[in-house]
Amino acid sequence: MLQAETSSQAVGAQEAAEVQEQAQDHVQEQANGADLKPLLEVKDLEVAFQSSTGTVPAVRKANFSIYPGQTIAIVGESGSGKSTVAAAVIGLLPGTGKVTGGQILFDGKDITHCTRKEYEDLRGSKIGLVPQDPMSNLNPVWSIGFQVREALVANNIAKGSEAHKLAIQMLEHAGLPDAERRSKQYPHEFSGGMRQRALIGIGLACHPKLLIADEPTSALDVTVQKRILDHLENLTSELGTAVMFITHDLGLAAERASYLVVMHRGRVVESGPSLEILQNPRHPYTKRLVQAAPSLSSQRLSAGVEAAQSAHEVSDSSSEQSDSDEVLRAENLVKVFDIRGAKGEKQELRAVDDVSFSIRRGTTLAIVGESGSGKSTVANILLGLLKATSGEVYYEGVPSSTLSAADMFKLRRKMQPVFQNPYGSLDPMMSIYRCIEEPLRIHKIGTREEREKRVAELLDLVSLPRSAMRRYPGELSGGQRQRVAIARALALNPEIVVLDEAVSALDVLVQAQILQLLTDLQAELNLSYLFITHDLAVVRQSADEVIVMRDGKMVESGSCEDLFANPQEDYTRDLIAAIPGGSIPLWSGN
Amino acid sequence: MKRYVGRRLLQLIPVFFGATFLIFAMVYALPGDPIAALGGDKGLPPAVRAAIEREYHLDQPLLIQYLYYLKGIFTFDFGMTFSGRPVVEVMADAFPWTLKLALMAIVFESVFGILFGVFAGLRRGGVFDSTVLVLSLFLIAIPVFVIGFLLQFIIGVKLGWLPVTVDQSMSFKSMLMPAIVLGAVSFAYILRLTRTEVAENATADYVRTATAKGLSRPKVVVRHILRNSLIPVITFIGADLGALMGGAIVTEGIFNIPGVGGTMYKAIFQGEAATVVSFTTILVLVYIFTSLIVDLLYAALDPRIRYE
Questions:
Q1: Does residue A218 surpass a pLDDT of 50?
Q2: Segment A90-129, tens digit of pLDDT
């Protein structure tokens, strides 16, 4: 068995009980203070999934309450049971999931064992849902307006042309500009942020008393995230809606909710007012979570002692020969795509517009920007996956456009990518051994035995057990898969690794581990990284130089510290301000 | 949407000319000389031969002959059979039978295939699902003529519920059994296709969102599961209509139906070139037409396709 990515410290039963008591105390305090009855009370809730090997508990004796108009956040990593709790509340447990114990009281009534009809009455009109992924949560074959209207009609709020009017109004409230025209459009004509606004419109269409927001913005850019959450906050406080916010991002949770519930392995390990939890976490898991939270106060990660020493030697020797210091240089890169406009006419899209930079050996350059800023296009040009319209990439001083196909093939050995989605970038039909060995085989390196030895070495390097070789990607967690992807990238001893959003799909704790791993590897192997990301907090932890991109152009560039300490452009300032929870001082260990 | 329809219609033009030219050129390239054959062992006098060639435009270049052939298609002049009967009359006899049979089969297989498929897909692994899966496997595995004879024997002879063969008035009752037999295999495929699609779409995120809105289960199924599942099913049904029109030889034979399949079969064996070419041309046109309908249905079902 592989160990789980986060080796948890076992929570003693007594300790857990204690924590829960504390949680109840807080609830009590709040209840007394506000002299209100809770809108939602989750009491000793237990949820389990039926599998072929027996029942797997997903939520174990969870307790918390939400008062009318209150916003609470449930925080935890994937698999902590936070989404399962939400699904249980709205009666949408997937597959074989079942409530096996405890109670969910909504407005004083136990809804744990509602009939289908009773749930239909509850959903939409009393409990709304804003789901996680805006890309997959709207039906592609119905217009946006129809999908909002449907909620109104189903809950007998309005009919016919009145429903039509109300739906447009709701979309306007949710922050969709030009709602009248856009309501006739289909999801594929909307950006991610716009879709999320539509989903918020649907969730709030019938003015429910409770809104469950399940990671509503984790798929969006930070700046869009900020705008949408600001809007959601205004809207819910205007309507007096209580919000149950589900997130893995502690900073975000603290910024948006007054009360936090921290879940770990199906248990509520700690709960209380947000600031108190952030500044004075009691449970060891919460402590780790707070420490791993990437926020503005984070510093550049440094490698472990041994690795740092060897890095020092390398950097000493390399600083003597400053010419070879620059491993890669891009000059005036331009990439133009031909696209079709709304009426079918030809248009040009300048995805990358005059971008120049260089990467020094052994350092990390980060390119930051929102979706559509052209940052991934730059990465693809560097990797030789796309041809630049104009401009040149110099690899160790040699312009890549002059290279023959054979030389390009050799160059690819020295430049390896790690992509964002660890689920999509590994072939599910290949064993981990084959995944990592494939680049070696393609480049005809070594004999069978040598390659096997190399794969074992690589697994050691990324701290995966050698037994992982015989496993398949489907059996690994997200963090473990990303380790495999890194091992594969390192197989050919590259000099440059292009990390295209390599940690953005991961939970905070796993993200911290992978970033540390990358930092250690950099020091050990003197690697140069090109880090493509939308997350400035991650940049702060891992980059030496930063380029900020917007609409294909370079907005600002400079050393990481300067950029954060003294941003020159408004756009950069916006990006920094959008980092959730950045202004909240955290508990800083022990 | 208008652009999409316009483009699809424009695409029909090259397809039509390409397909008809191919048919024409293939017949042209066939070995053998039917005119020489007319003269028997003695051979034809050159003057007679020239006269016949002129009558059938055989002295003209290939392209001109093709244009004459096209003119024939547009004026419903498909020439004569060997016995001197206009081919149009042969068509008028055969096509109504096949058209009615194929349409009935399509309706049967679509309605029941989709209905059973939805129920099976929503409760995958249940009793109903397992039963219809086994049944559909039977239908796919057993040859059509076995199913045909079996139904004929049980329903027609033993139970006497339906007539064993069709009557000349093409009554619904007498056509029902042949239509079911003709549609049986496609019914099984539609059922399986729908089942898989429904089972997959039922777990989609937007279905969960629709449920969370407070929609009743039937509305969720029809609006959010079924519509999204129908797109590949429609493709299959469209292609199948073409196949049923031309490929009903076995079923027509079993139930003694004087339709397209049987007529074509006979014509091919007797070397009736005019009949074969004309029937093939019509069938090609039917195919082109149904694929146009499928494309339009696609666009109606899935807005993303309209903008491709």
A1: yes
A2: 998 887 888 998 999 998 889 888 888 889 999 989 999 9
CA B216 to chain A, closest CA, distance in angstroms equals 6
Contact of A73 with A253, CB cutoff 8 Å? yes
Do A285 and A364 lie in a common domain? no
User: CA B203 to CA B225: how far, in whole Å?
Assistant: 9
Distances in Å between the Cα of B64 and the Cα atoms of A444, B28, B58 are: 61, 13, 9
The alpha-carbon gap from B209 to the nearest alpha carbon of chain A, in Å, equals 6
The answer to whether B42 faces chain A, any CB pair under 8 Å, is no
Question: pLDDT averaged over chain A?
Answer: 82
Give the pLDDT confidence score for residue A294 in this predicted structure.
64
Question: Can you give the pLDDT at residue A41?
Answer: 92
The domain total for chain A is 2
Q: Is residue A555 helix, strand or coil?
A: strand
Tens digit of pLDDT for each residue in A141-156? 999 999 999 999 999 8
Quote the CA–CA distance of A81 and A394 in Å, as a whole number. Answer: 49
Cβ contact, residue pair B204, A136, below 8 Å: yes
In chain A, % helix, strand, coil (3-state, to 5) comes to 40, 25, 35
pLDDT, tens only, A156-208: 888 889 999 999 988 988 888 888 888 988 998 888 888 888 999 999 888 99
Residue A277 C-alpha, separation from nearest chain B C-alpha, in angstroms:
32
Alpha carbon A354 to its chain's center: 29
Residue A282 is part of which domain span?
13-292
Strands (DSSP E) found in A159-241: 210-214
Distance from CA of B4 to the nearest CA of A (A): 11
Q: Are residues A420 and A491 in the same domain?
A: yes
A153 to chain B: closest CA residue: B215
Nearest chain A residue to B1, by CA:
A343
Residue A164, pLDDT score: 92
> Would you give the distance in Å from CA A355 to the centre of its chain?
27
Which carries the bigger pLDDT value, residue A16 or residue A491?
A: A491
Q: Is residue A3 part of a domain?
A: no
Q: Would you state the pLDDT for residue B138?
A: 92
DSSP class of residue A404 equals -
Residues A20 and A95 in one domain: yes
Instruction: Give the tokens for residue B113.
Output: 């295939």
The yes/no answer to whether this complex scores an ipTM above 0.90 is: no
Q: Which of A139, A186, A202 has the CB atom closest to B224's CB atom?
A: A139
* Phi, psi of A431, deg, nearest 5: -70, 165
Residue B208 pLDDT: 92
- A466 pLDDT more than 80: yes
**Candidates A123, A133, A143; nearest CB to B213:** A123
Nearest residue, CB atoms, B209 vs list A129, A140, A188: A129
Domain with CATH 1.10.3720.10 in chain B: 90-306
Comparing CA positions, the residue from A28, A34, A66 lying closest to residue A236 is: A66
Name the 3-class secondary structure at A557: strand
Contact state of B304 with A128 under an 8 Å Cβ cutoff: no
Residues of chain B with pLDDT under 70: 32, 34, 38, 247, 307-308
Q: Sheet of A54-66: strands edge to edge?
A: A54-66, A40-51, A98-106, A109-110
Residue A418 is which amino acid?
Answer: V
Q: How confident is the model at residue A580 (pLDDT cuts 50, 70, 90)?
A: confident
Contact B213 A142 (CB under 8 A): no
Rounded Cα distance between B181 and B145, Å, is 9
CATH architecture under which domain B90-306 falls = Orthogonal Bundle (1.10)
- Compare CB distances from B304 to A132, A137, A140 and report the shortest one's residue: A140
Chosen from B213, B224, B226, B229 to mutate, greatest number of chain A CBs within 10 A: B213
What CATH number is attached to the domain comprising A139?
3.40.50.300
The whole-angstrom separation of Cα A221 and Cα A229 is 12
Do A369 and A282 have their domain in common? no
